[in-house]
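Notes taken during the Thursday session

The instructor put the following on the board and asked us to keep it in front of us for the whole hour. The protein is D-alanyl-D-alanine carboxypeptidase. We were told not to look anything up and to reason only from what is written here. First, the residues (189 in total):
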Amino acid sequence: MRTTRAIILWSFAAAGALLLAACTALTTTTVQAPGTSKASSLFAPSDAAKLRDSQVDPFDDNHPAISNLDPQLRAALQQAAAAAKQHGVKDFWVTSGWRSEDYQQELLDSAVAKYGSRAEAAKWVASPEDSSHVTGSAVDVGPTNAADWLSRKGQRFGLCQVYANELWHYELLTSPGGRCPAMRPSAAG
Ligand SMILES: [Zn+2]
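Then, after some discussion, the predicted C-alpha cells were revealed:
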C-alpha cells in the first residue's frame, strides 16, 4: 500500500516536473524584468473588489488574483493544487494572489493601524513598491492544511515558503525538485 502510494506520488511529481519544464521552455521569451507590471494593464478597476476574495480557486484563470500571476508561478501553483487534492488535501485556496498597487497600499495602511507602527507592520505587509504580490510572483495559500502540505511538498513544484512567520506565502524560487533557499525570519528581515 505504502509502496503503491509512493509510486503514484513519484509518477505525479515526475509528470509535474516535465510539464513545468515544458512550460518554462515555452514562456522563457516572455519573462518580464522584475518590477515591470504588465499585469496591471490587464486589470479592470471594476475587478478591484474581487481582490478581496479570500477563497479563490487556484484554477480560476478568469479571477484577477490568478490571471495576473506570473505564468510560471500560476502553472506551478495549479500543479501543486492538483497534487494536494490527490493526496487528500480537501480544500486548497488562494487566499491572496496578485494584488494591485492600490490594494497593497490599503493592506499596508490597515497593518499600520493594527500593529501601531510602520516598522511592526513591515514584518507582515510590504509596500506596493516591494510586494511580490504586486509583481505577480507570490501567492498566499489556505486553509492551514493546504499551506502545511505546501510547506512540505512545494519544492517538488519549485514553490518555496519565503518567510518563517508566514506559512501561507509561496514564491517560485527553485526548479521543480530543487532546493528552496533558507527562509527569512519575516518580510522585514
Ligand atoms: Zn503573501
